[in-house]
Amino acid sequence: MTEPTLQGTVEVRSHLGPDDERTLADDVLDGLTRPLKELPPKHFYDARGSELFDAICELPEYYQTRTERLILQARAEEIVQRTGTVELVELGSGSATKTRVLLDAMAAAGTLARYVPVDVSATTVHAVAELFADEYPGLSVIGLVADFERHLKHLPAPAGPRLVPFLGGTIGNFPPGSRRRFLRSLRDAIGPHGHLLLGTDLVKDPRVVEAAYNDSAGVTAQFNLNVLHVVNRELGANFDVSAFEHVAFFDREREWIEMRLRASEPQHVRVEALDLEVAFAAREEMRTEISAKFTPQRLRGDLAAAGMELVEMFTDPDGLFAVSLARIA
Ligand SMILES: C[S@@+](CC[C@H](N)C(=O)[O-])C[C@H]1O[C@@H](n2cnc3c(N)ncnc32)[C@H](O)[C@@H]1O
Question: CA 306, CA 313: separation in Å to the nearest integer?
Answer without folding.
Answer: 17
